[in-house]
Write a structure and sequence with these properties.
There is one protein chain. The chain has helices at 5-12, 16-24, 43-57, 62-69, 76-109, 116-123, 132-139, 143-152, 157-179, 187-203, 209-221, 223-232, 236-252, and strands at 3-4, 32-33, 39-41. α1 packs across α2, α6 runs parallel beside α9 and α9 packs antiparallel against α10. 71% of the residues lie in helices and 3% in strands. The protein is rod-shaped.
């Protein structure tokens, strides 16, 4: 049984022009011709075309494909073994590429679209991706998490520097009040707490006063948050929490 060039093009998913070119360069010469001189392809021709397309998919130039297929020392099993080896290597490479893409997707999902050098420039020793999995596990189903992802997805290095500098300034203003002995429920401390809440709303997600008090409690209950505040000023985690709670009471009374 033989097939026309149009049929073969349809079988293989290539163009008729490609098959004509393969014929012209001697890579795939049809085994038969019709009485009118039209190309007719046999089953053996289709097998060869399958081999050609496989090597082409792997990036081999036509000259190398011809040399491989016309090697008198090679048998069909040798071609299959070679193709299996090449395909296995291709799969491993693609898996690594997929892993790299997944990592990039996770980074973008958290809004941290920075190179390692840029991350260090913006965040210093703090790794913003360090607790990404935990954050998603604990709050991934919340509206706050979704809002944060949306608002930070397009942040540039300059945006992150601005946000980081603004938050650091708020923390240090609160730390200065603590150092001066100003009570956590004073107007000054509550005003900084309100500024902190508005900063979160503006930069990440809508943070109502109730949500803000939950954050304040986390600052003293989670040792990682506590350590961050204690590094700025000893006692700041509890002072921050108390100022947040007093500010929430002031606005909800």
């Amino acid at each position: 049984m033989s097939y026309t060039v149009g049929q073969v093009a349809g079988f293989a998913g290539v163009t008729v022009r490609t098959l004509h070119h393969y014929d012209d360069v001697g890579l795939l010469v049809p085994g038969e011709r019709s009485h009118a001189g039209h190309r007719r392809y046999s089953d053996a021709d289709l097998d060869r075309l399958q081999q050609i397309l496989f090597y082409r998919e792997l990036g081999f130039p036509l000259e190398e494909v011809a040399a491989l297929l016309d090697d008198p020392a090679a048998d069909p099993r040798a071609h299959l073994r070679r193709q299996h080896e090449l395909l296995t290597a291709r799969i491993e490479k693609l898996q690594k590429m997929a892993a790299a893409v997944e990592h990039a997707m996770e980074a973008r999902k958290m809004g941290i679209n920075l190179t390692p050098e840029e991350k260090f420039e913006v965040f210093g020793d703090h790794d913003p991706d360090q607790y990404a999995d935990e954050v998603e596990e604990r709050w991934g189903d919340t509206e706050a998490y979704r809002q944060s992802r949306q608002r930070t997805a397009g942040y540039t290095k300059e945006d992150w520097k601005r946000v980081t500098d603004e938050l650091n300034a708020i923390h240090h203003r609160m730390g200065d009040l603590l150092a001066q002995g100003v009570p956590a429920d004073s107007e000054a401390a509550m005003d900084v707490a309100e500024e902190h809440r508005l900063f979160i709303t503006r930069s990440y997600y809508d943070c109502a006063h109730q949500m803000h008090t939950c954050l304040g409690e986390m600052y003293v209950s989670d040792p990682r948050f506590t350590a961050t505040y204690e590094e700025i000023r000893p006692g700041l985690a509890a002072y921050m929490r108390d100022a947040i709670v007093a500010n929430a009471a002031r606005h909800t009374a």
